[in-house]
Structures are given as C-alpha cells and as structure tokens.
Amino acid sequence: MLIDSGVIFGIDIAKGSSRAKELPRYAVAVLKEGEITQHKMVRLPHILKMVREEHPEYIAVDNIFELAPAKKELVRFLEKLPEGVRLVQVTGGLHKKSLLHLARENGLSFNQFDPNEEAETCARLASMGIGSEVSLFEDITKIKVSRARSLGRGGWSQNRYRRKVHGAVRERAREVEAILKKASKERGYSYDSRISKGFGGYVRAEFTVFAKRDQVPVGSGSTADAQVRVSSVVRDKIQYTSLKKLKRRPTIVGIDPGTTVGIAILSFEGELQLLKSIRGISHDEVVKLIAEYGKPAVVATDVTPTPGAVEKIRRSFNAVINTPSAEISSEEKIALGRLYGYSNDHERDSLAAALYAYRSYKNMFSRVEKKAPPHLDMDQIKLYVIQGASIGEAIEKVSGVPAPEKKPVEPPQVTDEDVEERKRKVAEKLKLKDSQISNLKDYVRELKKDLKAKDKRISKLELKLEKMREANHLEIRRDKEIEIRDHKISALKKDLRRSKKSLKRAHNDIRKLKQIRKMEIKGKGVPVKILPTFTREAILETKDRLGIKKGDIVFLEDASGGSTVTASMVVEMGVRAVITFSNVTYAAEDVFFRANMPLLKNVRIQRVDDLAVVDPDILQKALDEWEKQAEIKRQEEKEKKLKHLVDEYRSERRRGLA
C-alpha cells in the first residue's frame, strides 16, 4: 500500500547519542519521487533547516528517542516542525518490531551496521504505510490574551494607563473570539472561554479550542499593550497511530456517551488509533469520525445495560455490542488506561470500554493467528469469528476453499482382556487420586493451622500499630500546639519591638519640645517649627509630632508645590508668620496675603537638628517690613478696584448716551 507522500525523510543516528553532551550526528535519506538522496553526518539543527526547505510529509525513524533523550525534548523538537510534517516510528507504537524483521517482511534488505542504509529503509517503509505516527499533542489548543507590559507602580495617570491597557486586551480578546466563532462554524469544532475582568477592560482572556493547532486560524503575536500566545496541549503520554488508515481495517470502538462524548478506537492488534473527547458533537459527526479510522467490528461501553446513544452508533455500523458483565470500577479503568494515557474521565471511560472488549477477544485472536494460513487476511477472519462463525468457517469464507470433510472412522474391536486391562488402569488411577486427595487434605489442615497463627500475629500487630498511632497522634498534637505558641510568641515579639520604637520616637519628640520651651522661657530666641515640605502629609505629621499651635512661627524648608489647600491648612492653624528661603507659588502666596499672614523671605534663623530659633529683633524687623509692603499692595489693589469701578461707570454712561 503506497502513499503518495511527496517527500519523506528517513533518519538514523550515525555518531554519538541524544543523551550525550555533544550534539549527535545523523544519516538522512531523502526519498523524493522514488529516488534517494543521502546526507551523511548531519546535526539536528541542519536537519530542521532541511525540513523547513523541503517540507516532507513524514520524518521516519526506527526509534523516536534517537532524536531526543526524553519526552520534554521531543516536544520541543515537534514544536519546531512546520505544520503538516509528521513524525513516524516505522517499528510501530507500544508493540515494536525490529527494523530488520519489518524490512524482510516487506521485501527490503539493508546492512544493519550502516546508518545510511538504515535511514533509507526507514524512509521506504514509511512510504509503504508501515509504522505509527507519533502524537505528543492533544487535539486541544490554548489561546491566552494578556497584557504585553507591566502596569508598574503607577503615578497620577495610573488609572488612565490601566484602563488603556485593559481596554486593548479586551479588544484583542474580542477579535480572537470573533475569529474562533467563524472558524468553529466552518470546521465543526467547539471552544470554551474564561475571562478575567479588570479596570476598564480585561486583565486576561483564555480560550480552550477543541481542535488541533493547525486548524485554529489564530497566531501568536503582540502589540504595544496586548499579546496573544497560542500553544498546543501536551499529552500525558505519547500516542501512536498506525499509518494504515487508507485501508478500512476492522476496529474496536469504545464509547462514553453524554454531553461530552468520549471515543477510543483500537486495532485488532491492540494499538490505539484514536482517543478523543468532544463536547456537543452530534450523532452523525460521531459516526463520521469513527468511520475515518476503519469499519467498527465491535462497539463497546463500560456500563450495563447498553445506553441508547451507544446502541444507535452500533446499528449505524451493524457492529457487535460488547458490555461488561459487571460495572468496571474506577481503579480498574485507571489500570487499563495507564499504559496509553488519557486527558479526562470521558477518554478514560471510553478507553476502558475498548480495552475491556479487546481483552475479551484477545485469546480468540491468538487462536486465529495460529490456525489460519499466513497469506490470508487475518483481520477479515477475526471479523467473521466476532460475528459468530467458527474459525474453520471464517477461514473457508476468506479463502473460498471448503474445509475437507472428515471420513467416519470405524470403532476398533474390543476384547475381554482389553476390558480387564482398562479396569486395572482405572483402579490404579483411582488409588493414585485417593492418595493425592489425602495429601491435599493434610496440606489444607496445615494451611489452616498456619492461617490461624498468622491471624493471631496480625491481631497482635494491629493492636501494636493502634498504640503507635495513638502515641504518634499525641506527639503530632503536641508539636502543633508548640508551633501555634511559637507563632504567637513571634507575633508578640514583633508588637513589642514596634511599641519600643514608637515609645523611643515619643521620648525624642518630648525632649525636643522641652528644648523649645526652655528657649521661649529664657527669651533667647523665638522658636521656629520646621515643615520639611509644603504638602498635606508633612503639615499633619509636623502638627502631630511638634504640636503646631496658634501664634507659632513656621519655617518652610521646601515651599515648591504648595497649593491653595496646603496654604489654607497653615492659615487655619493660626500661625503668626511663615518663613521660607525658596519661591512660593502664586496661589499659596495669595492665600497668605488674603489671610493677612506674613510670608517672610530670607530671614536669618539658627537651626539645631530639626529645631530652629530666630532672633526676636530680626523677626520684628521682618514683620514690620512685610507690613509696609502689604499696606502698599493693599492700596494698589484699592486703586485698581476704584479705577475698575470708574471704568465700568464710564462704559455704562457711554452706552446710555448712545
């Protein structure tokens, strides 16, 4: 059975090992239009470059772990292959055959010590449809739409920036969903979505598409604010699918019906052809999918009686139904499916049903293979036997040659001596059987005695175990209580440290306030309370710490950034004057002027740590100077106001005369 495959790569390791530190070298045979081109001592990166240039249908090997040391590295290799390029293990899947044996079966010969000839043999076997496709990805694709940049700690425009980024994620997610809606209608697959909403849009959107990656028309990419990541879901275990799909071979199908339908298809050799679960699939679509993998000879379910949906599928193919005699336990299902691997309960149940059916026919398949001539179609003979024919009848149907009739054999003449001899032999056999029965009874008595002794020992050990459990339980409780107490002690120690720090700060503040008070009493200077910055937080903190009150002098260390709000807060405290060496905003200066609060600039002060004093004479002189300037400014404002009133009056007069 030749496959028109265009180009096929056969690969065999020539030097080194995939598990070695140094990259191994390979022999590559390129089969194109029946001609072989050999490439010797090629490294894997160069092979991938050749694959991207030639785009072969198959990459054929006799052992997939020659390409990668483990499953994780093999996944990376398959992710690098272009769409449509499939990896084939020509020696089969779980039940492998030797390459030499396969070559002889299919009329090929090669030198097994020559990697180039082995690579060519792999390519030619794959072209004949020999081998199994290696699948490491589920028929599920994950799409994640998320932010392309971090939001950071933020500032004044943080909310606007967050809204912009989340809005971009929402718009990109809607674009992806629109593409998926259209593609799902055209190609007949379904998808689920999960949205995480944020301020002004989406934080992220995740789509689970129940289709292969090459069937999903969405690619990875990113913009300034949003990014899309598309990836296939990796299987728990490697799946092998036979290449012989062009011939509709009989199959064993396991079905788990419901809203999500689980389908498992096995060949008569026990190789897994398909394992899939599909949500919301119709009966016709299930039948069409099963038919792609062959003609079902047996349709199996894991429950009794047969569900109506499974019976309907069975009638569609006129197959034999197979149900278990008793319900299959979850433990048995897990044990049955462990070798193949599965993704969910639906796949597990359908796989268990198919494997249970295969196990019930396995011995019959072995008898057929022993009795039937090797040149006949074994699958067809097995199919007839499943349908109720005997092995001989099935062979006759396939070969077209009737089985030879057996001639009746005349019974031999029996004499009295023969009868006596037979009686004697029977008596000897009976005597021997009696002796065996007596020995077995003695053995049973010994076993019962041993069993009783073991039961007694087990009882003692169980009692000892119970005491050990109780002691262990008490120890665990004690350790748990100690852990809780240690946690409480640690928390109390933290609280104590915080209290000590707070008390120390309070003592320092009291000491500083006493120093200020002493200066006031002695008349050596007028205390000045320092505001480090002209902000609301700094004003409140200084007020709580130093106690700003009515009549105090305040020094603004950094007056930049002041506003009408912060200036009003200082005015409301009723301070006597404000001293600063830096420029004050016009808005803050206007508030001070309107409140008749002196704003003194460049007044010399003496500073000690975060305390300061000003000479009373210098202060009074600065206040007098400010008062003069303020009076001049007030007169100017009055003149401006009067002039404005006169101008308005004249304007109204002109309008009245006109």
TrEMBL record:
<protein>
    <recommendedName>
        <fullName>DUF460 domain-containing protein</fullName>
    </recommendedName>
</protein>
<dbReference type="InterPro" id="IPR007408">
    <property type="entry name" value="DUF460"/>
</dbReference>
<dbReference type="Pfam" id="PF04312">
    <property type="entry name" value="DUF460"/>
</dbReference>
<keyword id="KW-0175">Coiled coil</keyword>
<feature type="coiled-coil region">
    <location>
        <begin position="623"/>
        <end position="655"/>
    </location>
</feature>
<feature type="coiled-coil region">
    <location>
        <begin position="437"/>
        <end position="516"/>
    </location>
</feature>
